[in-house]
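We were asked to recover a plausible sequence for a given structure. The inputs and outputs are reproduced exactly as logged, with field labels preserved.

PROBLEM: sequence recovery
POSITIONS: 121
GIVEN STRUCTURE:
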């Protein structure tokens, strides 16, 4: 079973994403802010980390930049979710080290497709 981390500060969206991905057979840990997400990443092993761009305590970009410097975590796959969907924001996220980007709002089917695509490599 693939293990994912979802870092999202909006409880309703977090619940919807977790329910959608658990129905597909994924095991998911949940973080509600950037600090919590970073702690999960440093202490666990994940096949994919899904980060919200704007979170309290640490943004998704800040997390990516810190994770990419950690020994043994440089290659963690990271998908960024953001309501900031301008091309410049996507470029910034990818330049920081994210492996993928999805604009909010998104459909559950699109999320499943993106997660499966990223896990296939």
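RECOVERED SEQUENCE:
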């Amino acid at each position: 079973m693939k293990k994912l981390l979802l870092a999202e500060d909006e409880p309703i969206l977090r619940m919807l994403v977790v329910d959608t991905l658990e129905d597909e057979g994924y095991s998911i840990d949940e973080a509600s802010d950037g600090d919590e997400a970073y702690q999960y990443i440093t202490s666990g092993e994940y096949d994919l980390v899904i980060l919200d761009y704007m979170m309290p305590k640490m943004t998704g970009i800040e997390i990516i930049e810190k994770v990419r410097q950690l020994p043994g975590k440089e290659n963690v796959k990271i998908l960024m979710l953001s309501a900031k969907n301008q091309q410049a924001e996507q470029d910034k996220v990818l330049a920081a080290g994210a492996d993928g980007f999805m604009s909010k709002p998104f459909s559950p089917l699109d999320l499943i497709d993106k997660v499966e695509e990223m896990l296939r490599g």
